[in-house]
Design goal:
The protein is α/β, with parallel strands linked by helices. It is 38% helix and 8% strand. Strands 1, 2, 3, 4, 5 and 6 form a 6-stranded parallel beta sheet that branches. β4, α8 and β5 form a beta-alpha-beta unit. The N terminus is likely disordered.
Length: 503
């Protein structure tokens, strides 16, 4: 028996080797691996010389293994070819091609020749992108398994209120497409099988309240919508998990479930109270859409004629969202409000479901000058699929959506575009993007364009939004360390029949 240099149990397997090979291994001073049997005299050497690597590797020769089966084999595809040539004065084998150790030399030369003749041209040749739709879809499936696809806006919670009055006990989200009114509604695009087919990694569910609730029961209705989102996630915990941070998004995605986030749509939901904003955040809301289609007393929306932007209280809302770590969403705001928010915010912002104004002049879309401000801010515009925001009419195609994505990429940069389809809150969708199952087809179409790399596709799909969210969390943590206190500003009380004299 021979004991491994540096300590280690005797290797009884050496006695089973050909005597000539055994003597060679015992006496050869080189660090060769000898066809997987190693060299017991040289395991303390960190690695062998690699003369003709098949591919780059960080492999080091293991030290003091206890079983020959654990040794790295020099012809394993995942490793590199060991330098096998050595000869010593103590070798009893003659310089002929009879010894087993010499076979190693022959095999090394053959593989090295093949590597030089075939591997090098392959290594130096151009990257060949996937050619067929099926190949591209397979690539997308692989990419979305590694990195999450994140959609910025889905209005399923409002349909739950409209269709079943937020009563979930008898609702099977896996089969609602076969039930009325879901089956025939033009506003319904979401169920669990479709979400799974769409490879969705994370979804912002919208806690939406109509503008007509402003100054009435907007706060209560928002709380009820937050509640139904949380119960929906809990009832379908095999598929969903409520998350509040980027770390949790990544963790839940690795588990194979859909990370579910809450976004409050419309600043009128605050009831002009920063305390309500803080309460929404504590309940899990991670973005607030500053306005909807109506003005609030402190901000102007898209469908209004005023151009006042943000009041002093509105600026306090932005600052408090920065302090909390809540994402500022500028979809539905007037561009005056958007510019004011961009000027005040110390954290990146988003447009959770908007497209490019240059291609469709809807007030919901983002003009080029604001796209440039978004790039400067570090934010992201998440492209909407509503046909009236894509082509400004009732019909659109997947290629029309791609035009918006490419335009935002051209003006703002690849780091500043994402996806915010708006499913279940729209009644007309582009051909090829009919429901939440179609995301992979959009990404596969982009991959057919040589200007789009796999890295670009995963940036669009979700990494850009994660970067923004991380930026928001970073500002929150910095302000916390600096002991920035909650904002206590108030708006002058509004006297109406639904307000208390003690407000």
């Amino acid at each position: 028996m021979v004991t491994v240099a540096g300590g280690g149990r005797p290797h009884s397997w050496l006695s089973t080797l050909d005597p000539e090979l055994r003597q060679h291994i015992q006496n050869c001073p080189c660090p060769c691996n000898h066809m997987g049997y190693g060299n017991v005299l040289d395991y303390q050497i960190p690695h062998c010389a690699h003369e003709y690597p098949i591919r780059e590797t960080s492999f080091n020769v293991p030290q003091y293994y206890n079983d020959v089966r654990d040794y790295y084999h020099p012809y394993d595809y995942h490793g590199s070819i060991e330098s096998c040539s050595c000869s010593t004065s103590s070798d009893t084998s003659k310089t002929t091609f009879k010894g087993p150790w010499c076979i190693c030399i022959i095999i090394c030369v053959l593989i090295a020749t093949l590597t030089a003749g075939l591997g090098l041209p392959l290594a130096l040749g151009p990257h060949i992108p996937p050619q067929t739709s099926e190949q591209r879809l397979n690539v997308i499936k692989k990419l979305l398994k590694e990195q999450p696809l994140i959609d910025g806006h889905n209005d399923l919670p409002w349909n739950l209120r409209k269709f079943v009055h937020n009563k979930l006990f008898n609702l099977n989200l896996s089969s609602i497409s076969d039930r009325e009114p879901w089956a025939t509604s033009k506003w319904s695009h979401t169920d669990i099988p479709k979400l799974r087919a769409g490879l969705l990694g994370a979804q912002f569910w919208s806690a939406y309240v109509p503008c007509k609730a402003q100054h009435l029961d907007a706060v209560q209705v928002t709380l009820e919508q937050i509640d139904v989102i949380k119960r929906l996630v809990e009832f379908n915990s095999n598929h969903f998990s409520l998350v509040r941070s980027t770390r949790e998004i990544r963790s839940v995605h690795k588990e194979g479930r859909i990370a579910s986030l809450i976004g409050v749509e419309g600043g009128h939901a605050l009831g002009n109270s920063l305390a309500v904003l803080r309460t929404f955040y504590s309940l899990g809301a991670r973005y607030l859409t500053i306005t909807h289609s109506c003005d609030t007393p402190w901000a102007t929306g898209t469908n209004t004629k005023t151009r006042d932007g943000l009041s002093e209280f509105g600026k306090s809302v932005i600052k408090e969202m920065n302090r909390l770590g809540m994402i500022i969403d500028l979809s539905h705001t007037s561009m005056t409000t958007a510019k004011a928010a961009l000027n005040i915010s110390r954290a990146p912002v988003i447009f959770s479901h908007s497209s490019a104004f240059s291609l469709c002049n809807s007030s919901r879309n983002v003009p080029d000058d604001v796209l440039k401000l978004i790039a400067h801010n570090g934010g992201v515009v998440m492209v909407n699929f509503y046909t009236y925001h894509v082509t400004c009419n009732e019909t659109a195609t997947i290629q029309d959506v791609i035009k918006h994505i490419n335009h935002i990429r051209t003006v703002a940069g690849i780091e500043h575009v994402g996806i915010g389809a708006g499913y279940d809150g729209i009644n007309m969708t582009p051909s090829g993007l009919e429901d939440v199952s179609k995301y992979p087809y959009l990404l596969a179409e982009l991959l057919a364009d040589p200007n789009w790399t796999e890295k670009d596709v995963v940036s669009l799909a979700g990494l850009n939004l994660l970067r923004v969210f991380e930026g928001v969390e970073e500002v929150r943590d910095k302000w916390k360390n600096e002991q920035v206190l909650p904002v206590e500003d108030e708006i002058p009380p509004m006297h109406n029949p639904c307000s208390s004299l003690y407000s």
